[in-house]
Amino acid sequence: MRIGLVGKPNVGKSTTFSALTETPVDIANYPFTTIDPNVGIAWLPLRQSCACKILREKKEQQGRMPEIDENDPRRGSICTPNSGSCRGFQRLVPVTLIDVAGLVPGAHEGRGRGNQFLSDLARCDALIQVIDISGSTDIEGNPVGEGGSKPIEEYEFLLNEIDAWIVGIIQSSWSRGARRVQSEGEKALSKFLIEQLSGIGATDYHVNAGILSVNQKHPDSGVPWSWGNEELMTMAGTIRSLLFPISIAANKADKNNNSELELSSIVESQGGKLILTSAEAELALRRASKAGLIDLNPETSNFSITDLGEKNLSNEQRNALVNISDTLSNLPGGGLLGLLSSVVFDRLNRSVAYPVQDDSHWIDGDGNILPDAILVSEGTTAKGLAYAVHSDLGDGFIRATDAKSGRVIGAEYEVQNGDIISIHARK
Ligand SMILES: Nc1nc2c(ncn2[C@@H]2O[C@H](COP(=O)(O)OP(=O)(O)OP(=O)(O)O)[C@@H](O)[C@H]2O)c(=O)[nH]1
Ligand SMILES: [Mg+2]
Q: Which of 63, 197, 345, 414 is most buried by a 10 A CB count?
């Protein structure tokens, strides 16, 4: 799972990245602070309890495990995650974030950081556009007074820019490619498009939807090789919306968020979601938490002060942290993690599956309990899950077992959310 943070310069992309990945990066109030992309891992809580809760309950019922001790630092969790962690049955799974250089109008023609940035996005499953909802930076990212820029323009320019980029990829060879239709029939057009756009992940599905949208929106467009920029932009827009679903972090909401409603309805009408965020406030709390001064719940932004914090925080600092937490609690939607969660689970519809080796103890070969929690897309099969773990496991797939019921399942079984599956493969 890979999500790109995009937007015009100076909106808070790197601040968002830093808050979610707890990685220090350059942040400054001028455009193009970020040049080379930052890549890091955000830890996303699953919406349902970790499967280790079921295992624990089973063990408790069988008298093989005592009830949860109130001093248990893991608050009952008994899994051994290979990556991430689990506490109180709240399992965290990794999501790769990529924070790229700001995009300015004309980037597809090489302005600003131009095409390098766009190719960084090529392997993303979805995008989060960070927008300055306070309107205090112009379209190039230069500071202006609050309300000096329009967030809706910011949103539309970005879509337009990505579409123009896609058109740029196909335009130079368009008429040659489209002419193939003359000799080879309709299929040749989608074949040509897939060849051109496979680098950004386009398949049959994407390009056919793109072609269909031109036929619907421009019924008089004529033969493909006569299509102009308008038709190609329509096609690119459809392909982009399927390849890179976009949701919005309406950032700097601590300052002002008057314009969010109108934008929110536009974004929602296109299947996305807008959430008010204050990346700067979240980052301040995450930093205090990382320094051990507070015990933070990143989902609610509530915190308690730790012993170290009691010793080291001045009254002023405590009040500042409380104010920040209050500001965040007043923003609906769960902030940056709420947005990430909605992108992964609502927009991309990901489920979680736990591959294991031993279907009675739910462990791997080394005795680790439920070591992996893997996000899978809708329609992933048992064999597909095997490939997600390791290509050898996929290649050698014989059959699988649903570890909860003990039933044998075949290669084509569709993985359901929360499944625990042991895979039997040839060595
Ligand atoms: N008030 C407020 N300021 C913020 C917020 N998030 C970021 N900022 C400030 O906005 C400025 C730009 O932040 P960055 O994270 O560097 O922005 P960016 O989008 O990565 O910028 P480029 O790398 O230049 O494209 C910095 O001064 C941040 O402190 C926020 O939620 N509220
Ligand atoms: Mg940056």
A: 197
